[in-house]
Write a sequence for this structure.
């Protein structure tokens, strides 16, 4: 293999693929990136056996071939080379080294056999559809904060994507048992009949990063155990979580008749301020709701107390209810409108929070005892 490539294009592709490579690996070849040169293009592939990222970039291929070299080391070398540099990659005849030439710099990296590199993308993907990149990103960003980090409930460690046949919608749901986030878009053409799938946390975070600059559509393909996202020269393939997502609709209340409307920014800032008093992980803030105000209160026997009033619109009976302050701020961060709406029942029941300008998203919070 002998290839000439422009530094900035190579660096951009390496930035994408090396992000999936773990720093410590018990399987040496998983620390490497697979380089394949043919027909005027260089294809880069990296995997951790759960996610595979592939990107193809233009190059001058003097001699085709394939090799694997340490991903992070190659990335660091290319990153430190001067902008605008032309790189030449050349594989030794014995296949055990790949040399990198750029100006007066020369590096030689140990290579491992490309035949040993795993192929995660193999197999059929019977379901496929295209979704606008902005819609896909929106579904993920509105729900990812509610993904569980508790490994024992592994089936909650991702976002559940599924179609809602009766409504003709594609819906994303995440929950950790204390809060739930739901967002949906009109079902893309081709998504009808798709199976419900749980996409792992690491995968959805990579998807947001990789396809952030994409203006058009992302092609999504599904099998029983894998999902593939593709746009342009970039392809991400991931294993799905093998489990059953719980019947989340049972925890979404239907009869919360007490409506509270607040200024989003003022409320989030007030929660942030009063929660300073309570530094423990499950810091609870009490909302004393009545009339035209909400009193936010935190009482910590070890450090003191804090209270702040926020004006509101509320015409139901008084109610005192407690929530995790971090969860309140996470939800407020998803509200794009100036106002946010709470639909409450009582101090012990789940509360629905909505963005008045976004009918296709809702958030559910379980109350805390305060």
């Amino acid at each position: 293999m002998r290839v000439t490539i422009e530094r900035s294009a190579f660096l951009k592709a390496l930035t994408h693929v090396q992000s999936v490579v773990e720093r410590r690996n018990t399987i040496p070849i998983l620390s490497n990136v697979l380089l394949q040169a043919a027909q005027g293009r260089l294809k880069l592939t990296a995997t951790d056996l759960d996610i595979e990222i592939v990107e193809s970039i233009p190059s001058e291929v003097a001699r085709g071939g394939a090799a694997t070299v340490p991903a992070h080391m190659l990335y660091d070398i290319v990153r430190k080379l001067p902008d605008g540099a032309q790189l030449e990659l050349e594989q030794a005849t014995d296949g055990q080294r790949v040399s990198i030439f750029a100006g007066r710099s020369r590096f030689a990296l140990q290579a491992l056999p490309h035949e040993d590199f795993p192929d995660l993308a193999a197999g059929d993907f019977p379901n496929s559809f295209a979704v606008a990149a902005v819609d896909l990103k929106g579904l993920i960003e509105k729900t990812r904060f509610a993904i569980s980090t508790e490994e024992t409930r592994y089936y909650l460690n991702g976002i559940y994507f599924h179609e809602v046949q009766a409504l003709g919608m594609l819906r994303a749901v995440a929950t950790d048992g204390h809060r739930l986030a739901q967002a949906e878009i009109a079902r893309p053409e081709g998504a009808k009949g798709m199976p419900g799938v749980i996409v792992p946390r690491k995968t959805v975070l990579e998807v947001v990063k990789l396809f952030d600059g994409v203006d058009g559509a992302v092609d999504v393909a599904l099998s029983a155990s894998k999902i593939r996202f593709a746009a342009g020269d970039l392809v991400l393939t991931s294993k799905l979580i093998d489990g059953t997502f719980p019947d989340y609709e049972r925890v979404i209340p239907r009869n919360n008749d007490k409506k509270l409307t607040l200024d989003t920014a003022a409320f989030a800032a007030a929660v942030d301020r009063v929660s300073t008093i309570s530094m423990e992980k499950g810091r609870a803030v009490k909302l004393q709701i009545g009339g035209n105000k909400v009193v936010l209160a935190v009482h910590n026997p070890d450090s003191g107390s804090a209270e702040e009033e926020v004006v509101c619109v509320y015409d139901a009976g008084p109610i005192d209810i407690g929530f995790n302050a971090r969860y309140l701020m996470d939800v407020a961060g998803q509200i794009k409108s100036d106002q946010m709406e709470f639909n409450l029942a009582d101090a012990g029941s789940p509360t629905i929070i909505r963005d008045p300008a976004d009918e296709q998203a809702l958030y559910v919070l379980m109350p805390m005892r305060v």
Remarks:
- The longest helix spans residues 7-18.
- The mean pLDDT is 94.
- The two ends are 67 Å apart (CA to CA).
